[in-house]
Design brief:
EC 2.7.1.148; eight-stranded mixed β-sheet; 12 strands; binds 4-diphosphocytidyl-2-C-methyl-D-erythritol 2-phosphate; transferase; 2 domains; four-stranded antiparallel β-sheet; kinase; binds adenosine-5'-diphosphate
Length: 314
């Protein structure tokens, strides 16, 4: 039996370029891995079977569309072996929340099955398989902080000092990632800027944001937080503005929608502030629940193997 821990992400910068002819958008996507995460356990099985527990478990598909099941099949096909595994997801990452929970489970299943099947697949090969599963999956393997170019899959790790404290406000109900990208395109057309890659420049990382990360400066990072999908998420879910305002009123240094939303992310100065902002957000009635957490943390990694040996839990 192998258990893998995998982080959720927040995009501290999400620069979105124009729509490409393949239906994706070029991004300058600064991913940041947080301790809020899922655990995926792999055991010897017959075929691929899947179970899931956690508060949002009823929202997780347990068929072949699940990214963990797809990852197991993809890795087996890559090595020309039968995909025999029982997968279990202990889910803490909000579903359809803009925190890449499905992508995290896909990355975790790659790592868990690789260990269960004794394949020792080199990381560059795992990253290629991850990119086939989805734009966000390679980052869940890597963790830390990284700039994702292309559709987000071309990763460059970024230097970061110390740690940052975060609060995530979880909404009732998710938002569909393709629907939010479509709304972003629609808003751009309505504003007259055009929405295709011919109309808009390729986005790039903000030097002030990169410096704030490298310096470990939460005040500077808060000032540089930016998400080009935020207007689209707010257009589809206007009530998110109340949640962002409630967190800022409770003392957060900065706030933004996490990726395609609807989870809202709040950067705070320390662990005590995180606790206070999480409590204020939960009491505000503007979200379902709020979690205090921190980062950056490692990408998908084995925490327990068959003999019960444990690795680092962060
Ligand atoms: C927006 C981001 C930010 O990190 O994540 P979420 O906030 O949803 O977690 C990602 O770009 C989501 O990545 P992921 O959820 O893996 O998307 P994919 O499965 O690759 O693509 C789903 C759909 O989203 C749109 N898409 C995705 C990535 C991209 N660079 N441009 C796009 O237009 C496309 O419509 C695509 O068909
Ligand atoms: N392992 C998984 N966990 C959650 N959702 C999954 C998983 N595999 C596939 N999905 C599908 O992916 C959709 C997006 O979920 P998720 O990855 O949690 O959100 P987001 O793309 O907003 O970060 C879900 O609505 C669900 O249908």
């Amino acid at each position: 039996m192998i258990t893998v821990r995998v982080p959720a992400k927040v995009n501290v910068q999400l620069g979105v370029g124009g729509l490409r002819s393949d239906g994706f958008h070029d991004l300058a996507n600064v991913f940041f891995a947080v301790a809020l995460g899922d655990e995926v356990t792999a055991r010897q099985g017959v075929g691929v079977t899947l179970t899931c527990t956690g508060p949002d478990a009823s929202l997780v598909p347990l068929d072949d569309t699940n990214l963990a099941a797809r990852a197991a099949r993809l890795l087996a096909a890559h090595h020309g072996i039968e995909p025999n595994v029982e997968l279990h997801i202990a889910k803490a990452i909000p579903v359809a929340g803009g925190m890449a929970g499905g992508s995290a489970d896909g990355a975790a299943a790659l790592v868990a099955c690789d260990a269960l099947w004794n394949r020792a697949t080199p990381l560059p090969e795992l990253l290629t398989l991850a990119a086939e599963l989805g734009s966000d999956v390679p980052f869940a393997l890597l963790g830390g902080v990284a700039l994702g170019r292309g559709r987000g899959e071309l990763l460059e790790p970024l230097p970061v000092s110390g740690g940052f404290h975060w609060v995530f406000a979880v909404a009732d109900g998710g938002l569909s990632t393709p629907a939010v990208f479509r709304e972003c395109d629609r808003l751009r057309e309505a504003a007259g800027t055009g929405s295709t890659e011919a109309d808009l420049p390729t986005p790039d990382a903000d030097p002030a944001l990169l410096a704030a990360l490298a310096d470990g400066d939460p005040v500077a990072l808060a000032a540089a937080l930016a998400n080009d999908l935020q207007a689209a998420a707010l257009s589809l879910r206007p009530a998110l503005a109340d949640c962002l305002a409630a967190g800022l009123a409770a003392g957060a240094l900065g706030a933004l929608v996490s990726g395609s939303g609807p989870t809202c992310a709040f950067l705070v100065k320390d662990a005590a502030a995180a606790q206070a902002v999480a409590e204020a957000l939960t009491a505000s009635g503007t979200c379902r629940t709020a979690h205090a957490t921190y980062g950056p943390v490692r990408g998908a990694h084995v925490i327990t193997s068959a003999d019960g040996e444990s690795g680092r839990a962060d």
